[in-house]
Amino acid sequence: MTDYKLINNENSRRYEFQIDGFIPKIEYILSENGEIYLTHTEVPPALEGKGIASQLVLKVLQDIEHKNLRLVPLCPFVAGYIQKHPEWKKLIMRGVRVE
After folding, report:
1. b/e 21-48 (16+ beta carbons within 10 angstroms → b)
2. Which residues span the domain enclosing 35?
3. pTM above 0.90, yes or no
4. Number of domains in the chain
């Protein structure tokens, strides 16, 4: 699988990859308190089934960890990824449960 470059598009409040004219993305809300709410993951239909969403989530989680942000995973895909990879639960803001 190709290793895509993560772009933090702060103006659009989303993390994204740029792949052959398509933009897989994870939208977020960043609070002034150091909390990041991941709200929506979207992969264009032409790119589905290639593991791109999982790679995107992984790189976003790595960036969140690097920036010492507290995560609130509102997006079901992100929450599901964390359930499958519990080592990332350490980023989740205290008091937030991932089901």
Report:
1. eebbbbbbeeeeeeebbbbebebeeebe
2. 7-91
3. yes
4. 1
